[in-house]
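Quick board copy: two proteins, each given as sequence then tokens.
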Amino acid sequence: MLYFLGHPVEIVRRARRRTLTIKVQESSLRVLTNQQVKTDQILAFLNSKENWIAKHLNQIKIRQTQFPKPTLQNGSHYPWLGERKYFQFAESKKQKVQFKIEDGFLICYVAQALQSSSTEIQRQLIKFYKTQAMQYLETRVSYWSDVTGLYPNQLQFRSPRSRWGSCSSQKHISLNWKLICQSPALIDYVIVHELCHLQHLNHSTQFWNLVESHLPDYQVIEKVLQDQVYLGNFLDHPK
């Protein structure tokens, strides 16, 4: 295992890749390269980028402090559509974990004997968030498609760590279901952004003009969204 600045380095090799690329992730570094580049060359490349890597690692640390992962304890705060919901256990006679949003609370209905099963509760929490997110996002895509006149051929839901959405040349839109943690305005921006890619599959002036015609304050919204990239990290599957 290769380490740099105290972080493990994952080396991903692709035969056709011509360049060395570094991706700074929450708990590791990722280097993209080809089969011919040797380990000592990778180390030399990492050393040449030490200041840049250290800067981004520090930014990640700051954001992790700003958005700590909530715990499965009464009174913890869970993000939901831009609001903070208070986590609360409620005793249930059923041998199945269930979640509900009720007013300002995220309530976990669970049998007393299962409250210590944190892994299973976390899995059901993720399932609940994902199910609710898909329903909400589908509704908003339908709304904005009618407004913009832009309709995707296919809508998919995924949870990449560093991407809120994408649009392919086949007019397939993919949305990060962890958007359910963000405010409705931020969610709408991501949806409008990807819908506009159906007309302009680039970030040209024409593309941004189209985005602005639907969301005049998109630049302010985009900045907020970038600052809150770690808000939904608690929805990662337990290992």
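And the next:
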Amino acid sequence: MDAFLVTGPSRLSGSVSISGAKNAALPALTASLLTAEPVLLAGLPRVADIATMTRLLASMGVVHHGDAPSTVTLRAHAISSTEAPYEVVRTMRAAILVLGPLVARFGEGRVSLPGGCAIGVRPVDLHLKALEAMGARIAVEQGYIHAHVSRVGALGGRLSGADIAFPQVTVTGTENVLMAACLARGTTRITNAAVEPEVTDLANLLVSMGASIEGIGTATLVIEGREKLSGTGDRAHRVLPDRIEAGTYLAAAAITGGDVLAKNARGEDLRAFLDALKAAGATVTESVEGVRVSVDGPLAPVDLATAPHPGFPTDLQAQLLALMTRASGTSRISETIFENRFLHVSELVRLGADVRIEGNTAVVTGPSRLQGAPVTASDLRASAALVLAALAAEGETLIRRIYHLDRGYDAMETKLKSLGANVERVNG
């Protein structure tokens, strides 16, 4: 059952509950490696990447109790392996996030070079150079990254604090070094750190575990290393709502001329995206309930470029591009984060979209009359863009390889149906 059959056009209306953020939950899970005490997490989304990470941690000896989205307890008190094997991590790049905690607490880690979405080269060299600056020895051999700290000498196998200046913003690099620094000897200063909400969420979790971190939410983080960290105690850390899932459903409202409330969504985490929707002609309302988007009339074209937070998120670029196929005029959407993140364009063209690629910019002319056709998803967010286009298209659209969606969206077809969409999971 690896395809969606979407029959359109639909007009979505109603409310949908937003799950916990996958991109915050993954580093939160790996943070359990930093302590022998229990770490309690709540609000984890029920998506494939979370299951993969949980399986990876279990293979290392992390004991796991509970199921998402209820409170889950992890305890890394008896680690039996410091290796993340290829068989487990080949579908998920976030597995690299175990490296920092492993080296920081156990003095070594061996992690398969990560896989995941085919959206261009996303090197981990920034992670490795930072860990080297903290005293780790790094070797890449037979498809694995092996990092270790010498146990000879005064440091006794511990990383040392260092000044880490990232030449470019890296979210997972910031998270990896942040976790490693919590158990390093001395002070670590990270400059040009990522300021995404998911990084802040991880920092808040680490503080609840006893870490000393200054500058949370800014591009400069100062971490005073501890001998050890505690668990979270009796109070679970609740993962923040998924801004990318929220943005996807709000874009679905806009592309179908609908009216959708994304419950629990935080407007402050979606500011650049919501500004783009307003520029396109959508009505955006923020409240204690969440964020509501409605459209009553034609859409206007929008020009923008992706950028690290607080700029327009690359993970919502494909969804906005799909939306712009319904706007009256020409939009220019530039991708500055990943060099190969327009794989969805050729499939949107199959549905009738008028899109051409000029370097790192997609030029979209609309409104296009979208018509159903068989299409194939290339990555997680491209899959979401195809679903959005299918909701606005006339007739049936068969979207193959939607296992990508299952990596990052919790029960998407169920949530879409609750909003009035005609979508079924079928064999593709």
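Board note added afterward: The mean pLDDT is 93.
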